[in-house]
Specification:
18% strand; Factor Xa Inhibitor; 7 helices; alpha+beta; 10 strands
Length: 308
Amino acid sequence: MKFPSKLYTHTARTSPPLSSSSSSSMALFNKWWILCAVSLSCFARFGSCRQHRADGAQSQLLIFNELCAQKDDPGPCKAIKGRFFFNVDAGLCELFEYGGCGGNANNFKTLEACEEACVVSESKNPCHLAEAPGPCRGLATRYFFDTASQQCRHFFYGGCFGNANNFRSMADCQAKCQNPVNPTMAPEVHTARRVSMVQPTIVAERLTAGEPEIQRNETNQALKDMRPTDPCSRPVEIGNCEDAEKRFAYSPQSRRCHIFRYSGCGGNENNFTSRKECSIKCARRRKAHGKKMIRIRKKNLDIIQRSV
C-alpha cells in the first residue's frame, strides 16, 4: 500500500514552532540531565561523592605518589610488553600492553613494584616525597614534611591526587615525620677557646715565635655530624622508571661532572639537568674550598735548623 506524499509534507509544514515555555522546559530538562550525568560519573569514579570534603579536597588520598595519577600510556613503539600501571578509577594496579619506548612514569615491570609506588598504606613512610599540590585548582591548607629543612610546612593543596606527604594538620605531620615522642637533641656546642704558649711554629713561609695558638675543642666533629649529607658525594642513581633523560652527576674520584641516563623518577640529589649547574654546585665549590699545601722555602728551613 502506497501512502500519499502530501501527508508527510502537510505534517512537516504545519508543525508549530516551539514556544518560549517549551524552550525553557527543554533548558531545564538539559540541566537536570547534566546534573544526573555528573552524579553518576562521580559514583562510578570514586564510589561516592561523599569522599570530597567541604573545602573541596578529597577526604582520603587515592594514590601514594603523584606519578600514579597518569593514565596508562603504551608509547609510540609497536612491541607488546606486559606492564602494570595504577588505575585511579579502580584504585589498584592493572596490567596493560606497553609498546617498549616512551610512555610515562606510571609504568612498572611487576605488580609488586606498582603497588609499592602507588597504593596508599599505613605502613609506608611518605615523608621523603616532594610537595605535591596536585592538578586541581583548589586552595585547601595542608601540611607536608620538607626534607631540606627537616620541618613540617604548610602548602595549598589543589584538592585531588598529589601524594601521601599530605597532612590535614601540623600535628599529624609532626607525629608521622618528625617523631616528637623521641626527639633527637642537638649536641651542645661550646665556643670557648683555650690559649696556651707554644714553641715557634712554621706558618706559610714565615717564622712566628711566642704567638698564642688557638686550640679548638672537639665541637668541630659534632658540627660536622649535624650537617646534611653532601649531595655531590652521593653515588650516581638512575632511578627506577623507564625513561632515558640526559643528566649530569658529580664524581668525587675524578672531580668532574659526568653525563648519565636518568630513568625519570627516584634517584638522589646528585642529579643535574646541565653540566654547568653540576659544575657550579659541586666542582667549582670544592675547588674553592680545597686545602692548599704549605710549602717552606729552603732558606727558611736552613734558618730553622740552625736555630735548633
